[in-house]
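Reading is simple: each integer encodes one residue's backbone shape. An example follows:

___
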Amino acid sequence: MRLLPESTNTLDPAVSTAEKVTEHLEPASADLPPAQLSFAGKKRFGESAFWQKWSTAFKDILPIYLAVHLIIFIISCLAFLLVSKDSSRQIQPLYILWQQWQHWDANYYVGIATLGYTNRQVMAFFPLYPLLIRGVMFVTHSPDVAGLLISNIAEMAMFTILYRLVAEDFGKERAYYTVLYFAIFPSAFFFSGIYTESLFLCLSILTFYQIRHGRWFLAGICACFASLTRPDGMYLAIPFCYEYLSRIWQQQNLSLQAFLVRKQMVTFLKGIRWDICFGLLFFGGVLLFMAYGLVHFQDFLAFVHAHKYWGRHTSFPGVGILRSVGSILHQGFLSYIGLHNMLEFGTDLFALVMIVLMFVGPWKFEPKLWAYGIYSLTLFLYFQMVPVSGLLPLESMERFLLEVFPIFILFSSLSKYRTVHLSYCLVASGLLVFMLTLFLTNHWMV
């Protein structure tokens, strides 16, 4: 039994009318037989409809992309006011505009791109992004410019793919608000910096898009690159398995009681084909990097052991949240530690509420769309399992949780409530400007 290549809810109405349109197409050549004329017409129409969908998505996200980057550019220029003395006559060189993005983890990516993996500590950073920086440097001759180009191009592609994915599953209005809410989230400025967030999300959302269309091989290739960017990419195997097996389940029209009947269970297992093996590609990037660690550092798990340099340790999910609350109560709200914990705890709480609402409540996803919720829950639990020792146990959580993109799909369903929409836009964009300013002036905001 073969799996359907497309899910029924992802079909574009324009494509379904191809046969009607081709009936009225004029012959391209009198030498071609009618059958070939019809086939050629359908092919031209299909190609046109395909590019039209992506062109529409790009045009819809472009105003959001440009507006956010205009804000980022203005803040990048004005940030110098915070590090300059009043009435100072000092003139900064223009290249400072992009060098001010090279803070914290960005230094490690640039270092790997120029020098390679010189010690075990940097094995915590996966290689695809530094490799791309190295390649683009042949043109830019600057790792900073190369990193910014890669991130911003990947961000534009990521928003376009996200729009198409959401539009096919939830509608164009939800797609627009998903991209808008995602783009102005307080920590979304990392998409434009020398960080892996935009590249990883571009590859992971593209993997999701291929999964939803039943293109298992393409999904595996995209996921392989995603897991070569960040180890979190291997968790894309979970929505892959859910989509693959649920399609067999739907085709055989089975019920939950099927697991209690041996004959039906055997039939279900026989429906699995060899193309499920493409799921192994989801671990390809991680396995390649493990092999690299074995060759260069004689440590198959060098990238795991490198996390000890950053104070991260494995813990039961929820321990980090409790420690963060305790740190706020002990250190005080109006303190550096307290306010940082509030930012990270607030992001954690927002993500958790959105994930719960994916399964319960008036805005819950249909079972055929549970791949979004399952993937979100998996990533959320994974991030909660690796808190940091010290007074900031949820450190960088506002950046990590950007990977859980389905939370913005769920939140977009609240856009019809005017107060919620305006409150989010004003608060989120204000925090975005504030956090970006802190980052550009070399304050800890990662």
